[in-house]
Amino acid sequence: MLNEALSAPQQVSLQLASDAASYQVLAAQLRTRPPRGVVTVARGSSDHAAAYLAYLVMSRTGQLVTSLPMSLLTLYRAPVASSGLLAITVSQSGRSVDLIEPMQMFREAGATTVALVNDAASPLAQTVDWCMPLHAGAEQSVAATKSFICSLVAAARLSAHWPQGEHEDLLQALERLPEALEHACTQDWSGAVEVLSRAERLMVIGRGPGLAIAQEAALKFKETCGIQAEAFSSAEVKHGPMALVATDYPMLVFAPRGPAQAGLIALASEMRERGAHVLLAAPSDVAERQLTLSTAPHPDLDPITAIQSFYLLVEAVSRARGLNPDTPPHLAKVTSTR
Q: Structure pTM?
């Protein structure tokens, strides 16, 4: 897991050097024939990447994006109106039946289908109209790291290519992202290992495009550390979850740049006053931080550098708890459900 996480900047460089024409042609098609709506199809870490994609697409194109409960099609056979939709799936293996079947149904019903998938020879890649390879390389650890980061980058590329003209800032920023990821690998978050290695439950907080990173972090705490971690938006945590917060309750708050940052910093301060043991991850200009976030070439890419640093932390926490993060109990690399 550690080696694969550290290799992410190199794999991102490989992806950014590939498939530019495919993104351009797909984007031109979407501009010429705007979809009637957008749905994402994914599970686990890939669903978190899809949530990041949804934020970028909605904020940059105005298109509403819906996360599809796959059982609507695979179990309940709901008559979803699919013609004219854009259906985007995100997957590492491309072999999960609960992704392949819905994408087949969408394509047969007249939707435009796109797969952000690591294995370009997989059944899922062969099912869709457009395969956008992640170029993450083979991943041996059960816990996804570099493939998740490459999924976020592919999501950002699609979101940046789609609109015409005024969003070229994100495309230009992506070119410099590998260097920012290298810097994120050098951030020292070891001060959080002792606190987190003793935790049995934990809240991870984010908002906006950073909520997807909080969701991914919570999953990795469960998966590799055996910690009952739950992710919440800072806008939702006061609607009930805050009742759990007592003295020394651990909380990890991601506060990257953007409109949500001030509220996240304020929440961290409020929770600290309630007695929580708050670990605030924020850029170097935030004095209250405990963990330093490397900034990306564009604020919309800050969640990617944040998760890069986090993966090195959670791997260390797992080992500090006497676990092997590469082989979590009861889990397999490919999960198949319906």
A: 0.95
